Amino acid sequence: MPSTLYDRIYDVVRHIPPGRVATYGQVATVVGAPVTAREVGEAMAALRDGQPEPLVPWQRVINAQGKVSTGPRQQHLLEQEGVVFNAKGHTDLRRFGWPGPDPAWAAAHGFQVLSATDTEQQLDLF
DNA sequence: CTTCTGACGAAAT
DNA sequence: CATTTCGCCAGAA
Protein backbone atom coordinates (compact mmCIF):
# COMPACT_ATOMS: atom_id res chain seq x y z
CA MET A 1 0.00 0.00 0.00
CA PRO A 2 2.12 2.84 -1.30
CA SER A 3 0.85 5.80 0.65
CA THR A 4 0.67 8.85 -1.54
CA LEU A 5 2.18 12.17 -0.66
CA TYR A 6 -1.17 13.53 0.42
CA ASP A 7 -1.76 10.49 2.62
CA ARG A 8 1.50 11.17 4.41
CA ILE A 9 0.54 14.78 4.89
CA TYR A 10 -2.84 13.78 6.28
CA ASP A 11 -1.17 11.32 8.64
CA VAL A 12 0.90 14.09 10.14
CA VAL A 13 -2.01 16.49 10.42
CA ARG A 14 -4.00 13.82 12.24
CA HIS A 15 -1.33 13.89 14.91
CA ILE A 16 -1.83 17.53 15.78
CA PRO A 17 -3.76 17.45 19.07
CA PRO A 18 -6.92 19.48 19.69
CA GLY A 19 -6.21 22.96 20.94
CA ARG A 20 -2.87 23.20 19.12
CA VAL A 21 -2.06 24.54 15.67
CA ALA A 22 0.75 23.84 13.23
CA THR A 23 1.88 25.91 10.28
CA TYR A 24 1.93 24.62 6.72
CA GLY A 25 5.66 24.89 6.87
CA GLN A 26 5.91 22.78 10.02
CA VAL A 27 3.82 20.03 8.52
CA ALA A 28 5.97 20.10 5.41
CA THR A 29 9.10 19.85 7.52
CA VAL A 30 7.76 16.87 9.43
CA VAL A 31 6.69 15.03 6.32
CA GLY A 32 10.15 15.77 5.00
CA ALA A 33 11.68 17.05 1.79
CA PRO A 34 10.81 17.48 -0.99
CA VAL A 35 7.47 18.44 0.47
CA THR A 36 6.88 22.17 0.64
CA ALA A 37 4.43 24.29 2.59
CA ARG A 38 2.65 24.95 -0.65
CA GLU A 39 1.95 21.29 -1.22
CA VAL A 40 0.55 21.01 2.27
CA GLY A 41 -1.83 23.78 1.31
CA GLU A 42 -2.73 21.85 -1.82
CA ALA A 43 -3.42 18.76 0.23
CA MET A 44 -5.64 20.69 2.60
CA ALA A 45 -7.48 22.31 -0.28
CA ALA A 46 -8.14 18.88 -1.73
CA LEU A 47 -10.09 18.01 1.39
CA ARG A 48 -12.85 20.30 0.25
CA ASP A 49 -14.00 17.59 -2.14
CA GLY A 50 -14.31 14.75 0.30
CA GLN A 51 -12.57 13.76 3.50
CA PRO A 52 -10.59 10.53 3.81
CA GLU A 53 -11.12 8.39 6.89
CA PRO A 54 -10.21 8.92 9.57
CA LEU A 55 -11.11 12.57 9.26
CA VAL A 56 -8.33 15.13 8.99
CA PRO A 57 -8.38 18.06 11.46
CA TRP A 58 -7.52 20.50 8.68
CA GLN A 59 -8.51 23.46 10.82
CA ARG A 60 -5.38 23.00 12.93
CA VAL A 61 -3.10 23.93 10.05
CA ILE A 62 -2.62 27.68 9.70
CA ASN A 63 -0.11 29.95 7.99
CA ALA A 64 3.23 31.11 9.31
CA GLN A 65 1.76 34.44 10.36
CA GLY A 66 -0.32 32.69 12.97
CA LYS A 67 -3.54 33.37 11.10
CA VAL A 68 -6.06 31.09 9.46
CA SER A 69 -6.07 31.29 5.70
CA THR A 70 -9.60 30.22 4.94
CA GLY A 71 -12.02 32.61 6.52
CA PRO A 72 -13.80 32.84 9.89
CA ARG A 73 -15.15 29.31 9.97
CA GLN A 74 -11.73 27.79 10.57
CA GLN A 75 -10.97 30.23 13.35
CA HIS A 76 -14.30 29.47 14.97
CA LEU A 77 -13.57 25.75 15.00
CA LEU A 78 -10.22 26.38 16.64
CA GLU A 79 -11.70 28.67 19.25
CA GLN A 80 -14.05 25.86 20.19
CA GLU A 81 -10.95 23.78 20.88
CA GLY A 82 -9.56 26.47 23.12
CA VAL A 83 -7.23 28.31 20.77
CA VAL A 84 -7.28 32.04 21.39
CA PHE A 85 -7.04 34.64 18.64
CA ASN A 86 -6.59 38.36 19.19
CA ALA A 87 -8.58 41.08 17.47
CA LYS A 88 -6.23 41.06 14.50
CA GLY A 89 -6.98 37.41 13.95
CA HIS A 90 -3.70 35.89 14.94
CA THR A 91 -2.87 33.43 17.64
CA ASP A 92 0.19 33.18 19.86
CA LEU A 93 2.15 30.28 18.43
CA ARG A 94 4.27 30.13 21.56
CA ARG A 95 1.20 29.00 23.45
CA PHE A 96 -0.80 27.10 20.85
CA GLY A 97 1.86 26.08 18.39
CA TRP A 98 2.39 22.35 17.86
CA PRO A 99 5.74 21.18 19.34
CA GLY A 100 6.01 18.51 16.70
CA PRO A 101 5.20 14.81 16.47
CA ASP A 102 6.00 12.27 19.13
CA PRO A 103 9.65 11.28 18.42
CA ALA A 104 8.95 7.57 18.64
CA TRP A 105 6.00 7.76 16.29
CA ALA A 106 7.91 9.97 13.88
CA ALA A 107 10.86 7.59 13.78
CA ALA A 108 8.57 4.62 13.27
CA HIS A 109 6.96 6.24 10.26
CA GLY A 110 9.92 7.96 8.71
CA PHE A 111 8.86 11.45 9.62
CA GLN A 112 11.02 14.28 10.90
CA VAL A 113 10.85 15.84 14.35
CA LEU A 114 10.70 19.59 14.57
CA SER A 115 14.00 21.10 15.60
CA ALA A 116 14.31 23.88 18.15
CA THR A 117 14.91 26.42 15.43
CA ASP A 118 11.69 25.40 13.73
CA THR A 119 9.75 26.40 16.78
CA GLU A 120 11.92 29.32 17.79
CA GLN A 121 10.89 30.90 14.59
CA GLN A 122 7.39 31.21 15.98
CA LEU A 123 8.29 33.98 18.40
CA ASP A 124 7.14 37.55 17.75
CA LEU A 125 3.54 38.20 16.71
CA PHE A 126 1.18 39.20 19.44
C1' DC B 1 1.79 21.22 -24.75
C1' DT B 2 0.50 26.08 -22.67
C1' DT B 3 -1.82 28.84 -19.26
C1' DC B 4 -3.73 29.96 -15.01
C1' DT B 5 -4.41 29.66 -10.28
C1' DG B 6 -3.52 29.24 -5.71
C1' DA B 7 -5.73 27.00 2.26
C1' DC B 8 2.61 29.18 1.29
C1' DG B 9 6.60 31.82 2.81
C1' DA B 10 10.56 34.80 3.33
C1' DA B 11 12.40 39.14 2.27
C1' DA B 12 12.16 43.65 0.75
C1' DT B 13 9.74 48.11 0.60
C1' DC C 1 1.73 46.81 10.17
C1' DA C 2 0.17 46.26 4.94
C1' DT C 3 1.73 45.32 0.23
C1' DT C 4 4.54 43.63 -3.22
C1' DT C 5 7.84 40.48 -5.33
C1' DC C 6 9.55 36.37 -6.30
C1' DG C 7 10.66 31.43 -5.83
C1' DC C 8 8.47 27.01 -6.45
C1' DC C 9 5.19 23.84 -8.42
C1' DA C 10 1.09 20.45 -8.30
C1' DG C 11 -3.40 20.24 -10.65
C1' DA C 12 -7.13 21.68 -13.48
C1' DA C 13 -8.72 23.55 -17.89
What does it look like?
- With 126 residues, the protein is mainly alpha-helical.
- It is 42% helix and 3% strand.
- The chain has helices spanning 5-14, 24-31, 37-46, 72-80, 93-96, 103-109, 116-120; strands at 22-23, 61-62.
- It has a two-stranded parallel sheet.
- Helix 2 (24-31) crosses helix 3.
- The model has no long low-confidence stretch (mean pLDDT 89).
- The protein binds a DNA duplex (13 and 13 nucleotides) through helix 2, helix 3 and strand 2.
Question: How is the secondary structure organized here?
Answer:
Layout: H1 5-14, E1 22-23, H2 24-31, H3 37-46, E2 61-62, H4 72-80, H5 93-96, H6 103-109, H7 116-120
Parallel strand pairs: 1-2
Helix pairs in contact: 1-2, 2-3
The structure holds a DNA duplex (13 and 13 nucleotides).
Which series of helices and strands comes N to C?
Answer: HEHHEHHHH
Unreliable runs: none
- Overall pLDDT: 89
Report the β-strand fraction as a percent range. Answer: under 5%
Describe the strand arrangement of the main beta sheet, using strand numbers. 1-2
Give the helix tally: 7
The tally of strands reads 2
